[in-house]
Design brief:
Structural class: alpha+beta
Number of strands: 21
Strand content: 15-25%
Oligomer: single chain
Largest sheet: 5 strands, antiparallel
Helix content: 40-55%
Length: 455
Amino acid sequence: MGLTSVGIGSGLDIGGIVTALVNAESAGKTAKFDVNEGKINAQISGIGSLKSAMSEFKDKIAALTKPETFGSQKVATSTKDYLSATVDKTAVSGSYQVKVEQLAQSQKVGSAVVADKTSAIGEGSLSIALGTGGSFNIDIAATDTLTDIMNKINKSEDNNDVTATIINGELGPQLVLGSKKTGEDNTISVSATDTDGNTGLADTFSMTELTPAKNAIAYIDGVKVVSQSNTISEGITGVSLSLTAADINKTTTLTVSKDTAKTKTAIEGFVEAYNTVMTTIKDLTGYNPDTKAAGILQGDALPRSIQSQLRGMLSSSVDTSDGSTMLAILGVKTTREGLLEIDSTKLTDSINNDKGSIAELFSTEDTGLGSKISNLMDSYIKSGGIMESRDTSLDEQLSRIEDSRTQLSERMAAFSDRLYKQFNAMDLVVANLNSQGNNLLSRIDSLPGVVSKNK
């Protein structure tokens, strides 16, 4: 190119002119891309918020499909000093008087006292058994000390129920064996056999009871109950007692009653989550007359379909063993705005008087509300579901816009190059014309008798 600085020949701001022309050509298309991209991103955000609300709703529904949510029992104790209790749904409502006479205890037996725990005891073997269970054997080497024997017992692969430790008493060290299990059925027996002709091992392991094994003893409404452990699981139907202290003169009142709070809380969570879904749909599809703004998904069939299906399910009745029932009968009604509201008193009364129909209303497979709504939510929010398909479609639209932006950028770059070539060619022509004009004026000025206007 003859000129290295654009506009030097004509004095024009060619760079500014080209930029303005390129911007004018691309501005409308870029603005359209921005608007479309903004709408799509808003739709993605809206779908995301709806999906989140529906996921929360599905989680709340899950509690209403579990048997333990309905007809469960709860237990309370007048004091926590002697026992704690848990119940299952088979427990019978009522009051029980419990006295703990004795806690279960594990047995401990001790060997004879030895002079030195680091001295060899004698060669042979030990056979150790707990209760009626199988025994395990420990081979004792001639050089084994009391400490070695303790370690062998504790490390034996066949030993699951006996612990060994050395206690250094007033008279000297002795090996103490303890049962990991409580109760009179779990006593420890030790048989020692000498193989070196001495009686050191047998004499040492002639065991003495240090702590007796004991069964737990409790009285439930005056009935004596004995247990090998401090857990009594069959004393009262559906009730498990964990004994912690004993005093036959102290009574603990144990009260079993219907746990209505669990059912009510689950239904309240269901209503709250449903209202969140419906409010989200309303915000996404409605029109705000104050701001004159339409919801980003206004006119979209997806949220409207969800709304319609949910309303249809909640207004329908379900056949139960106690007759046909529906949410409204429980005290859960639909407002004018399409949301749910709870008549707390009516719901509590319904739960208290329920004979199983509430559980069937929600948890009956295929026909229960919980089952049907959970399946509906899952069809939309699961991996590969309807909403993921919608997200994929919107992502593809964004990708096409990005491709169009790239194509526009390439076209504008070519357009800019073409304009620069045209303006630079013009600039070169103007520069040549100016040069020729100046040369002509200079020659005219040099003619005899011509007075230059520059003088």
